[in-house]
Every structure is written in C-alpha cells, then in structure tokens.
Design brief:
- The chain is an alpha/beta fold.
- It has five helices and twelve strands.
Amino acid sequence: MTRRLRLTWPDRQPFLGREGRPIRILAASDEPDPTLDAEGGRQLLGAIDLVVGCGDLAPDRLAFLADAFGAPLVYVRGNHDRGAAWQAQHVAPEPTEGLVVEPLPGLSALGLPWPGRADDPARRDDLRAWRQTLGGWLRAWRQRPCLVFSHAPPAGSGDLPADPYHLGFPAYRFLLERLSPPLWLHGHTPLAGRPWHGQGGPDGRTAWANVTGSVLVELLPPDGGLATIEP
C-alpha cells in the first residue's frame, strides 16, 4: 500500500504556473510496492511529477516506475545496489550523488547515496558520510529550500539506535540541523514496529519520512494548508 504525506513547501517558486496544483512526488525504496505493478493501482494514485528512489531498488524497477508514470527520475544507490544488475545498468539515468538543480522547475534536491567502505561497499563508512555532508551542505545552502533524499536516515530521525547497521549517520544529523530542509526522504530502516514519519531538526522544521515500499508526497504552496498524513 502506498502511504501518503502532504506538507506545505515554504517557497512559491516551484508552483509558478501550476494554478495552485500540488507537486506530487512518488518516493520508493528497498521493497517493491506490488500495488504499483497493475495499471489500475497506478491510476488510483494519479499523476506524478517526479519519482525519487531512496536506494535498494533495482534499476529496472526504478525505470519502470518512471516510465509508467511518465515522470522524471532521480535516485541514490543503497547498500545492496551492487552486482550484475548494476554492472549492466543502462535502463535508468545515472544515480545521484550530490545536488540536483531543478529536477522540477524551481525545486532543487540533494541526493546522498549509501556511504560504503571502499573495500566493502555494503558496510557503513562514517568518514565518507561526513565527506558527503560537508560537500553537500555548501552546495545546497545556495539552493535552499532543498529536498534531501538519502538511503540511510540521519541519526535520531527514522533510524534504529539499538541496531548498529540501521543506526542513522551523525553526519546527516549535522546536515539536517544546519540546512533545515523542509523534507528529508530516506529508506534502509525496516518499517515493522517503527513510525515511518516525523519531525526533526531545529524546532521540528524538517519533516522526514521512511519511504520503504512507497510514499506519495504532495507538496503544497505556502498558502496551501497544513501537513496531513495518511497510512
């Protein structure tokens, strides 16, 4: 089932010419959502403006979603995005690592792939996460407000603190607190028994969502109303 999240975007620029229509983003990661396989299920979801992949989905799956909805695609690699499917990858655009300026007009996004070790890409590398963060922070600062999407979550926002492998990155927390993006999308963390959304950063100004499976995000213009969430 595709969960739904609706929130107000603080900048009017991406909504120019949209006549008040929200920006509709389909975010997905880790586990293919079977409700999106059938045309009927996709029609119920409606038109999509942008597909965002937060890791651990095969390139052919990402390309299928983008083609099925007729929407541009941006995505980051996860810790399991390795092997033959990726060595011969030619169906999807190149994965994102860093700032994407205007995947939609007026909207910028910062992509943070899984920061793996050079000798074992599936293992976490906190130093590489800091390198991602410092480089991304400087570039994204000039493009605020900015959507952030990553495979792993920031520490304390959607992670599992008692599980070393699913512990969020302190470097990402640093970025969240200083950049204060309106929205941070991530995957990686199992959904069972955990909230899939919340607020973080200074004064709770950043909404975060675990998009494992899929989440339909609707961004509303500044006067478009309050955030609402559906299961």
